[in-house]
Design goal:
alpha/beta; two-stranded parallel sheet; about 250 residues; nine-stranded parallel β-sheet; Leucine-rich repeat, LRR (right-handed beta-alpha superhelix); about 25% strand; globular
Length: about 250
């Protein structure tokens, strides 16, 4: 039986890092590890997640990566039984949908969340609503719907990163949805904002909406990272710095 080491993955966690759920459930019975604090699961079969996410009372960090469509219901069912010790969660599935599935109360104590692929901007707002203590959020987006969004203020988030998908999103819809998302948010404790686009399409990143978000939030932003094909002219860089003189803009 693997022994937990404070602050590091257990031996069992290390084994799981290198195996799919299929191979784990073939060679291991359901996990009953009272001291397991880290778990990484990567597989094409979401239905076996429930076998692995039972009786893990000390679990603090969980990473799930699935590639099969329609995996959200199985993920939601599995996550609904996670303990209140959870503080870090990463879930990357073909369609991350909070609108139609109940994920339980696991969100309550999370401080770090990474999710994707998010197809609806409302899902980003819902994560922020559920995670009252959240300080870091990374979102892999493929925003295919332009939605009307209600304003939302999150008082604790300090790090926000957006990573639009190259392969799935309609880029015009994606950027329009991002602009509406920026217009809906107020993040008064935001310290770092990052965005990355790995493809060029001639369309303009919604700098106006992002600057309005920073101004409306009156946040102590320290670092702005706009990588890849986001695109930022010298005058746009100057406008960000004029808004927050101490801001470090990268690149």
């Amino acid at each position: 039986m693997a022994q937990a080491v404070a602050g590091t993955p257990t031996l069992l966690g290390t084994r799981l890092l290198r195996r799919s759920v299929d191979s784990i459930t073939k060679h291991y019975p359901p996990i009953h590890e009272p001291n397991l604090n880290y778990l990484y699961l990567f597989n094409h079969d979401a239905e076996k997640l429930a076998l692995l996410l039972t009786d893990l009372p000390a679990l603090e960090e969980l990473t799930i990566g699935l590639h099969r469509d329609r995996s959200t219901p199985a993920v939601a069912q599995s996550m609904s039984q996670l303990p209140f010790t959870m503080c870090r969660l990463s879930v990357i599935v073909p369609c991350f949908d909070l609108q139609n599935y109940h994920f339980g109360s696991v969100w309550t104590h999370l401080t770090y969340v990474e999710i994707g692929l998010v197809l609806e901007p409302a899902s980003v707002l819902q994560v922020l609503q559920l995670c009252h203590d959240l300080s870091s959020l990374t979102v892999h987006t493929a925003l295919m719907r332009v939605q009307t969004l209600e304003p939302l203020t999150h008082p604790k988030i300090q790090f926000l990163q957006l990573r639009p998908s190259r392969s799935l999103s309609s880029t015009l819809t994606d950027l329009t949805s991002l602009s509406r998302l920026f217009n809906a948010l107020s993040l008064p404790d935001l310290r770092v904002f990052g965005a990355n686009r790995d493809h060029s399409d001639g369309l303009t990143w919604p700098h106006g909406g992002l600057k309005a978000l920073f101004a409306r939030s009156n946040c102590p932003l320290e670092r702005l990272v706009l990588d890849g094909e986001v695109g930022m002219r010298d005058e746009q860089r100057a406008e960000y710095v004029a808004l927050i003189p101490s801001l470090e803009v990268v690149p």
